[in-house]
Amino acid sequence: EIVLTQSPATLSLSPGERATLSCRASQSVSSYLAWYQQKPGQAPRLLIYDASNRATGIPARFSGSGSGTDFTLTISSLEPEDFAVYYCQQRSNWPRSTFGGGTKVEIK
Amino acid sequence: EVQLVESGGGLVQPGGSLRLSCAASGFTFSSYSMNWVRQAPGKGLEWVSYISSSSSTIYYADSVKGRFTISRDNAKNSLYLQMNSLRDEDTAVYYCARSGYGDYVTYWGQGTLVTVSS
To answer: What does the alpha-carbon distance between residue B64 and residue A107 come to, in Å, rounded to a whole number?
Structure first.
């Protein structure tokens, strides 16, 4: 099983600041990595797929980068609605898809 | 607008059974692969099962293989998950989810809570 480790577990930032979230895979997943946002009581929402492609309707302040084992989700300037939990997911060995443990972005 | 509405969750005793349903609308259901993904209370996400658009390809996570059965009825725009021999660790919110962009999950329902407890 490919294990995804997300860091930090919690990120405390203020609106307008830049957020940098990390996802590290236990083995190479090439570029088969996605990022999701989940707010309390809501279903997740796909933000980024194939490491760097924004999904339909996702604002340009969200960007993804990386390949192989190290990936980053960057939110260039946090809006109030961006405070949420973020998950990465790999589909390199589909159907053995796995998710990371999540990073909570909270208001400082 | 894509809509996925789950139903069928509830409280069930260990060893019991439950059938989840998902009603899809706003897209051509028969053209898309579908998934079930679950989330235990306060925990992360776990992919559970996948079914291709024609039902020709089906996959399960090891944790549910042999106990859960995924199916779909394209004429009724519906997805199902038959869950047997339920365990405490199956307690979770179960999401119906549509595949896209090459088998990522592009749309999610709001989820239905399954609680396995005596």
So the answer is: 37
For residues B6 and B37, give the distance between their C-alpha atoms in angstroms, rounded to a whole number.
12
Q: Which of B103, B106, B111 sits opposite A55 (nearest CB)?
A: B106
Could you tell me the two tokens for A4? 């995804």
8 A C-beta contact, residue A31 and residue A51: yes
Q: Which one of B37, B57, B62, B104 makes the best mutation probe of the A interface by having the most chain A beta carbons within 10 Å?
A: B104
Structure confidence by residue, pLDDT tens digits, B61-109: 999 999 999 999 999 999 999 999 999 999 999 999 999 888 899 999 9
| CB B10 within 8 Å of CB B117 | no
Query: Mean pLDDT of all residues in chain A?
Result: 95
Work out the end-to-end distance of chain B between its first and last CA atoms, rounded to an integer number of angstroms: 40
